[in-house]
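Thread: Modeling a multi-component assembly for a lab meeting

Hi all, long-time lurker, first post. My supervisor asked me to bring a structural picture of a complex we are working on to next week's group meeting, and I have zero experience with this. I have the sequence lines for every component (474 residues in total). Could someone generate the structure of the whole assembly? Inputs are pasted exactly as I received them:
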Amino acid sequence: MNIVLLDPRQTTNEVWSISAQRQVQHLHTHVGVQVGDSLKVGIRGGKRYLTEVVDVSEQRIQVKALYEEAVPKKLPVTLIVALPRPKVLRRLIMDSVTLGVEKIILLHSYRVDKSYWQTPFLQQLDQYVTLGLEQAGDTIAPEIQLYKRFKPFVEDVLPSLISADCPAYVAHPYTDQVMPHAIQHPCSIVIGPEGGFIPYEIDLLEKNGCQARHLGNRIIRTETVIAYVLGRLFSAG
Amino acid sequence: MNIVLLDPRQTTNEVWSISAQRQVQHLHTHVGVQVGDSLKVGIRGGKRYLTEVVDVSEQRIQVKALYEEAVPKKLPVTLIVALPRPKVLRRLIMDSVTLGVEKIILLHSYRVDKSYWQTPFLQQLDQYVTLGLEQAGDTIAPEIQLYKRFKPFVEDVLPSLISADCPAYVAHPYTDQVMPHAIQHPCSIVIGPEGGFIPYEIDLLEKNGCQARHLGNRIIRTETVIAYVLGRLFSAG
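Re: Modeling a multi-component assembly
Sure thing. I ran the full set together rather than chain by chain. Output:
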């Protein structure tokens, strides 16, 4: 936790109260927070401040804003990823948010087990987003969309995300073209499930404007490839 | 598991036996392996083959080599990383191996809890390496070294890893210089612990030839930053 994220409703008075158990406990246990300390606090969906701690109790920490700080910029990318195994979902969302992905789309695919769509973890996405924002020092949640059917998404939604200035790349081992690097424009990036997309899916993606690009001849897990490809694509900054 | 890794001693006859419970179980449960199937098999420290399955039983799967396949190339990088929390260690080693890191150095640092050096997980590094190699389709284990003292490593060992053709970069938020991308030469990359290196450590690293480079103003977890920075540095390929 590198900032404490508060709801806008918690910041209407001059003194703001941090009262969520998770946050208070972290500040006591890991930061050892005391009156007079400075603390980075973000308002969800809004600005970020350096604050001063004015009161500390077991259940509540109170702060006053000192001055505004810059919120880190997002990466201009829509990450479209086949719904992973539930236990990978938390890390995938948290990492994507930490790295600054602007929009995340979770998509069905042939090799996605249908039971994954029933996981209670899908009800906790907002919690993973909060953890990712607090890690990065960010305040703006990415948009997250779920598409439980592959074909309608690829045929009806994906084309609207693609333009001459904003291409879409699907990471795919069986192509001659290598994934670009240090691009200076927005894009969408499509990442398949464990075992990859099936040929029919790659065909449909390509027919609808997506460009297949390989990442070398190592096979990388979904949750690892996201950071790897984002580091590659947005290395111009 | 994208290849089955065997010990050279298991491949002295014409027919090779896969008998490790973990591997056999994976091939039965996830691959549904049958006689006549082709199977990618690597010899640890050696070559990689496409093989044909010639016998299948509950406890053992037997294969015969058909032809040799290319082993993926390593990234020419030494990853020097502050020893992470035990539960992160497995993922960190596995991801680094999957991505092709040539040499991994686990290092002590002021913000590394001394108890981390007592974790039984440090006895299982070889197992994590195997998982990373089987994920990537690689056969060559990276060298792994452990240094329990920061200063002697930085003063006595680090300089020998650095040359005009092989710089060392430390990821550090408080510098004007940005991490390079798409480099065409080998390098070392130094990654700090949770909370970062302390100023004394950054000073000592810089005095001994390491260049501090930032990765933007997001704070990224150790286990995520490794894939991110490798994607950035080695995007020329």
